[in-house]
Here is the input.
Amino acid sequence: MLDAMARNGSPAQRAAALNTLASDQTFRALRANLAGRPLPLARRRGATSPQQRPARTIYSAGNKEVLPGRIVRTEQDGPTGDEAVDEAFDGLGQTLDFYASAFDRNSIDDEGMPLDATVHYGDSYDNAFWDGRRMVFGDGDAELFNRFTIALDIIGHELAHGVTEDEGGLIYAHQSGALNESLSDVFGALIRQSQPGRLQTAEEADWLIGTGLFTDRVQGKALRSMKEPGTAYDDPVLGKDPQPGHMDRFVNTNRDNGGVHINSGIPNRAFYLAATALGGHAWEKAGRIWYETLRDSRLRPNTGFSRFARLTIDVAGRLHGSASTEKAAVVQAWSEVGVLRTS
Here is the structure.
């Protein structure tokens, strides 16, 4: 998407895209380096009891590329009136609450790790990322992208990279990297669907990732669609959503760390199919199966789609029974996207 923006955009849009791409290369390299390593003890400061919500601290970079920036909101402060600050603060809280209530997980490391976030990062920075220590949000360029705190599922997505880093350590390249990205989309979607007062069942959810990030100038509805990969946007500047939803259209590429943001559409659709087949709140059955698979000791750093699929099937059988409808739904989901061949 940023590559297309750099090719097709106005001078200002191209400058924003190139600046974001330059920064992203650094942080993707960092994410790849962190894969497979547990969260270090130095980052597990102030561990809390399961009943106590970990502390949140929001910083502002003041539109410079500095981290962490200056503190602008803590647990002792009320809303600031700065939308990015308050959205980040609330989004971290909703993410913490989701993991605690859905999976009895105490923060992203399950040891009460406090959560930090920096907002107003960079000049027209069109992205958000987890850097191994904190969340970082750009303000967008205001022409194509809004501020990146606007979408709760993006906050949940990036923090889920920390969960994957802690639990599964999936290598951030090729199929294992696409699974890494897909797991972040799964948990980001579940966090949005579980908002208090806005609870959604699997059938009610739109399964879009990043709704609200595009300005009204963009011909698109979100960054990705888990329900229909490849349909999220089709825009003269940003190009067409390249995600496949079936192995027949798997994209072999060395770009994007081997297509981690592209081919994640395949396991994304598998999760959507399993969740909607099982019905109800998606975190209760499909989400639990995917979460326990991430935590399974048999998950290797280089796990690809086929091995991950077999693990989810095995976990579904362990949780619900070998002849259960839950296991059958997971088998069918992976078969429909071409990862498993059942005939």
